[in-house]
């Protein structure tokens, strides 16, 4: 068994931790084995631990402790660069400096790349998670004196001087580490690096209180750690960008990285930044564009507000999905249906705003179920059965392609060609493949290969069909539907 290291006599047994006055949580495979461990009055005594939990991993509840958990190797680089004082560091043999410790309380937060950016970290050990602030009684960490649940290596101290207060703004520094890690991982390819760094500077200039020196150093550090062979050219990016008339921002970063602006906004939110340009435009848009209400299948109601002779008025327009997604078509619909002039937005801004509105849409109380394409298709089939009837003698299906009701099995069999003929008379035309998909998905029908009186018979079967009694003919005789049924279809259509 690997020897447990005890650097500077840090705590490595449950007795050590109890003597220091900490609250412990027994764990297996990194998970608590007890309930309500985060409750304010939770407490396991030293004697209880000895008798019941001595074989468990030691989870330290972080009541008045801050643990920076560095999951991504790039995060370690920036932690070493920005953290000026830390007396205690822990880890394990193959990941030795992964936890930095201080006394105090911070808001817990996990810093993970948005889902659409996970391709950048698909081979990383912890995937999208870059680092995590663990603190307060809602969090715990497996500490030295335990085996790592996955790798079966002892958790150990790399440095132990006790849990001390951080000299400086710890919260800002930890969030700065997270942001630098993300921007380094996402660093632009050659040919776009100057725009990328300028855009970072633009965001920090417009939406933080960082001075030019801090921005300069931050961007330079990212460039160096991202192996930018022109990193020296990024040294004064903050200063030069501030002097430029049109500094780039989040939309440019999104363009370079090929992602949505809100993914970039998520990353910068780690340091308290919002996409102000999007917020401002959304406010303007909200003054003109109301919430989206789903009125029927592929039909959406939107209230839009405009002005006539400087007096505001509101109208409701109805559009389909493709119109919602197309800025030019949407603007045309608003002008045509409501006579409202919408504020100008960039394509990316329109995309973000309409996507957010769409995802928060509501369903109208007057939702038109009857307009649902599936219901319309069911109605066509019901009318087909009402017109042609369902026969209880299978020979009508075999000889005349008429629907057959198997009363014993409670199944309805029908001929697809006959149903298709009916639809065509109604001027409803589907490609054969689309028709087959609809009868499978909407009618829940299955194809059946069989015989009747030594004659091959192919039909489609619906189990437990909903058929009115007047639509059933008992042991009746069908007409020749090659001619007479078509005439009946025509009459029904008329």
Describe what you observe in this structure.
- The chain has 18 helices and 18 strands.
- It has 494 residues and is α+β, with helices and mostly antiparallel strands.
- The protein folds into 4 domains: 7-177, Prim-pol fold (2-Layer Sandwich); 186-273, no CATH class; 278-363, no CATH class; 372-493, no CATH class.
- Strand 9 and strand 10 (299-308) form a beta hairpin.
- Helix 5 (193-207) packs across helix 7, helix 5 (193-207) runs antiparallel to helix 8 and helix 8 packs across helix 9 (261-268).
- The longest helix is centred in the middle third of the chain and has 16 residues, at 170-185.
- It is extended.
- Mean pLDDT is 87; it is low at 477-483.
Q: How much helical structure, as a percent, in the residues? A: 25-40%
**Alpha-carbon Rg, integer:** 34 Å
Report the biggest beta sheet as strand number plus sense, adding barrel if it closes.
8 strands, antiparallel
| Secondary-structure class | alpha+beta
Q: Strand portion, in percent?
A: 15-25%
Distance between the termini: 89 Å
CATH architecture of the largest domain: 2-Layer Sandwich
* CATH C-level of the largest domain: Alpha Beta
CATH topology assignment of the largest domain: Prim-pol fold
Provide the low-confidence segments as ranges.
477-483
The count of helical stretches stands at 18
Mean pLDDT: 87
Could you say how many structural domains there are in total?
4
Shape field:
extended
Question: Could you tell me the number of beta strands?
Answer: 18
């Amino acid at each position: 068994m690997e020897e447990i290291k005890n650097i500077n006599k840090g705590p490595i047994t449950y007795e050590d931790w109890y003597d220091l006055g900490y609250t412990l949580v027994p764990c297996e495979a990194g998970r608590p084995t007890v309930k309500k461990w985060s409750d304010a009055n939770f407490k396991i005594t030293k004697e209880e631990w000895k008798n019941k939990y001595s074989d468990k991993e030691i989870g330290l509840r972080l009541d008045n402790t801050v643990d920076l958990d560095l999951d991504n190797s790039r995060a370690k680089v920036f932690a070493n660069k920005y953290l000026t004082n830390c007396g205690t560091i822990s880890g394990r043999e193959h990941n030795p400096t992964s936890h930095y410790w201080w006394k105090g309380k911070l808001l817990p937060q996990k810093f993970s790349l948005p889902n659409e950016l996970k391709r950048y970290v698909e081979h990383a050990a912890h995937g999208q998670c870059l680092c995590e602030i663990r603190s307060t009684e809602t969090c715990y960490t497996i500490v030295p004196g335990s085996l790592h649940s996955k790798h079966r290596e002892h958790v150990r101290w790399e440095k132990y001087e006790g849990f001390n207060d951080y000299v400086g703004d710890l919260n800002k520094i930890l969030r700065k580490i997270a942001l630098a890690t993300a921007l380094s991982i996402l660093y632009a390819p050659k040919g776009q690096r100057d725009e990328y760094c300028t855009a970072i500077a633009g965001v920090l200039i417009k939406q933080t209180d960082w001075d030019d020196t801090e921005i300069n150093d931050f961007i330079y550090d990212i460039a160096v750690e991202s192996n930018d062979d022109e990193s020296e050219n990024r040294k004064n990016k903050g200063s030069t960008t501030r002097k430029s008339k049109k500094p780039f921002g989040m939309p440019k970063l999104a363009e370079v990285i090929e992602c949505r602006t809100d993914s970039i906004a998520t990353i910068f939110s780690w340091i308290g930044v919002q996409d102000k340009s999007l917020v401002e435009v959304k406010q303007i848009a909200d003054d003109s564009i109301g919430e989206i209400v789903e009125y029927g299948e592929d039909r959406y109601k939107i209230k839009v507000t405009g002005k006539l002779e400087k007096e505001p008025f509101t109208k409701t327009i109805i559009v389909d999905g493709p119109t919602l997604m197309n800025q030019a078509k949407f603007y045309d619909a608003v002008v045509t249906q409501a006579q409202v002039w919408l504020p100008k937005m960039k394509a990316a801004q329109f995309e973000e705003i309409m996507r957010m509105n769409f995802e928060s849409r509501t369903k109208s109380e007057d939702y038109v179920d009857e307009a649902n394409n599936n219901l319309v298709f069911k109605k066509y089939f019901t009318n087909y059965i009402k017109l042609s009837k369902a026969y209880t003698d299978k020979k009508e299906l075999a000889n005349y392609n008429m629907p057959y009701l198997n009363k014993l099995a409670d199944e309805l069999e029908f001929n697809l060609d006959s149903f298709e003929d009916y639809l065509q008379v109604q001027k409803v035309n589907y490609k054969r493949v689309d028709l087959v998909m609809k009868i499978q998905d909407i009618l829940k029908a299955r194809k059946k290969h069989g015989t009747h009186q030594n004659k091959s018979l192919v039909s489609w079967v619906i189990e437990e069909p909903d058929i009115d009694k007047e639509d059933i003919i008992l042991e009746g005789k069908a007409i020749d539907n090659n001619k007479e049924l078509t005439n009946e279809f025509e009459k029904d259509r008329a």
